[in-house]
Amino acid sequence: MVENKLLGQGPLLKDVAYEEIKERILDETFEPGSFLSERELIELLQMSKTPIKSALTRLEAEGFVTVSSKQGIIINDLSINRIIDIYDLRTVLETFNVREILGRLNEEQSLQLQANLNETEEIVKRLDVKAFTKADHEFHLLICKFADNQEIYRVLLNYQDHLHRITLRHLRKDPHRMEEFWRDHIEIYDFIKQGKDECVEKMKDHLQNSKRRLFM
Length: 216
Fold this sequence. Notes:
Layout: H1 13-26, E1 35-36, H2 38-45, H3 49-61, E2 65-68, E3 72-75, H4 80-101, H5 107-125, H6 129-147, H7 150-158, H8 160-173, H9 177-194, H10 198-214
Antiparallel strand pairs: 1-3, 2-3
Helix pairs in contact: 1-3, 4-6, 4-10, 5-6, 5-9, 6-8, 6-9, 9-10
């Protein structure tokens, strides 16, 4: 069993349990609205009740599950209103970010964004939804990092897990949307590098179109 690891080796069991359960929620192996029991998780993760209960407490605080003494563990879905609110918040913050770095990218920052776009191109070719989701979010976080507003970065970072879940759901409807999103990123990058104000409107359109298409 996992618990047989020696103390001091590897992460704490409660953290392992947290990551294992959360990953299954994000990729919807545990489907929204479904029910689990502690016994199922004990058998699945090969752990005792204690680290699993600790992980569930953390996941409940973050809104991923609801733990009920009568119903067991309920996998929470993101409401339509919350998804809309998250995208609208991103639009406000991320248009600010691109405006802040407009025409100010240094060589190292430019190389990091270009490397991300090159990696994303290869991911699009093989239609790897999970890898694209990671690269997509990295592109947006790099722009935020370069804007150098720590409070905005903290807010966006706090939403990453929920955004991961939303993006995976988005792309599973139509994996070929990856190419459209990647081309949007190229255009945003080119506008920023050239110091063109169009990058602000392009970022707004990119996020708002993503929001609308999620419900199509």
